[in-house]
Design a protein that fits this description.
14% strand, 4-stranded antiparallel beta sheet, 11 helices, alpha+beta
Length: 367
């Protein structure tokens, strides 16, 4: 065991309640614990352990940082209140932000003091970012923005938004998009919460943009380079998605393997799920290895697609054939319900198939 992993485990022992592991379900919605824990994680350097110390990290190699993240996911550490801020926005700020933007936004973002929304999905485009129609027309030193976003997670509680808009309508679909930092209290921004059929961990919103003005220095990255900003940022988020998918499958399948009677007709399903679980783990490690070597990882879309569908299959198996136990059954049902969104969040399976077809298989792009 590495020194960093041992130190992280000591940190968790001090930061989490003594009964956290045995009473996990009681702490899932503990806002005070979730808020405090994220701030303590950042202050101790564990939130982004591979980042340099001056930005709140520990300068750990990527492989050691992966070990820390896996340990945290295995222990089911408290979920961040605004998870896209750390998983998507902060990496984009680090990679593309100006020194002034990093000074202004990084610390409150990582400590959980300010929430962010992701202005990506749109009506008629879903999570197909290249098909967005929101426009940002430059007029001197400002952009005039008009359009609509939908399924914007936690927009009703966010202070800022990374807003993706088309700044060059004559360019190809994947080009001519820019990313802008939008304060959510800017005149012309209207947020409407979307009602859901049942309880949800996070809120979903529509965001309407009517003649919203932003200064040119609100650009994150270069003008018309928003696609690269988005793809780079989402790469970080999807590392945590595959880790969580793998461990959720492991937790779901354990009761099926340990004591349940799986009928012969379900053996193939169980074997397939076990193979998919191991495939997710190995492919995820391959992707991290590629990035450690400085190579582009071709596994991101594959992992997102495979992991999203595999975790749904494993959750369904656990619900059907898991050993009977009141508390365990409730936990499995919770995870089954949450797995239903896996093929939608972070990019739908349909969009992932398009990405794989175009970038990995080299098939021609759609119109």
């Amino acid at each position: 065991m590495s020194d960093s992993l041992a130190e992280f485990r000591e940190f968790l022992a001090d930061a989490l309640p003594a009964d956290y592991a045995s009473a996990y379900r009681n702490y899932r919605d503990d806002v005070e614990l979730r808020t405090r824990f994220q701030a303590e994680m950042f202050d101790a350097g564990w939130l982004v352990p591979e980042w340099p110390r001056e930005l709140g990290g520990r300068d750990l190699p990527l492989t050691e940082a992966l070990t820390i993240r896996i340990e945290g996911a295995r222990r089911q550490i408290p979920r961040q209140m605004n998870i896209q801020a750390t998983g998507v926005v902060a990496p984009a700020l680090r990679a593309f932000g100006t020194p002034e933007q990093q000074q202004t936004y990084l610390r409150p973002t990582l400590r959980g003091e300010a929430w962010w929304a992701l202005g990506m999905s749109e009506p008629g485009a879903g999570s197909d970012l290249a098909s967005l129609r929101t426009t940002a027309v430059r007029r001197g030193d400002v952009y005039l923005i008009n359009g609509q976003k939908v399924w914007t997670t936690q927009a009703d509680g966010a202070r800022w938004c990374t807003l993706y808009a088309r700044t060059d309508p004559a360019a190809a679909k994947h080009r001519g998009i820019s990313c802008l930092i939008l304060p959510m209290d800017t005149p012309g921004v209207t947020v409407r919460r979307i009602r859901t059929a049942g309880p949800s961990i996070e809120t979903f919103c529509e965001v309407f943009l009517d003649d919203v003005e932003l200064p040119v220095n609100a650009l994150l990255g270069r003008e018309n380079d928003g696609w690269r900003v988005a793809m780079s940022a989402l790469e970080h988020e999807r590392d945590m998605i595959w880790i969580n998918n793998w461990l959720e499958m492991q937790r779901a399948l354990e009761p099926v393997l340990d004591g349940a009677s799986v009928p012969p007709h379900a053996h193939e399903r169980l074997g397939r799920s076990l193979a998919e679980m191991e495939g997710i783990r190995l492919t995820g490690i391959r992707g991290v290895g590629a990035r450690t070597a400085g190579a582009d990882s071709a596994f991101t879309g594959i992992l997102k697609l495979l992991g999203s569908e595999a975790v749904q299959n494993a959750a369904a198996l656990a619900l059907e054939f898991g050993a009977d136990a009141d508390e365990a059954s409730l936990a499995r049902f919770d995870e089954y319900l949450e797995s239903m969104a896996a093929t939608i969040y972070g990019g739908t399976s349909e969009v992932q198939r398009n990405i794989i077809a175009e970038r990995i298989l080299g098939l021609p792009k759609g119109a």
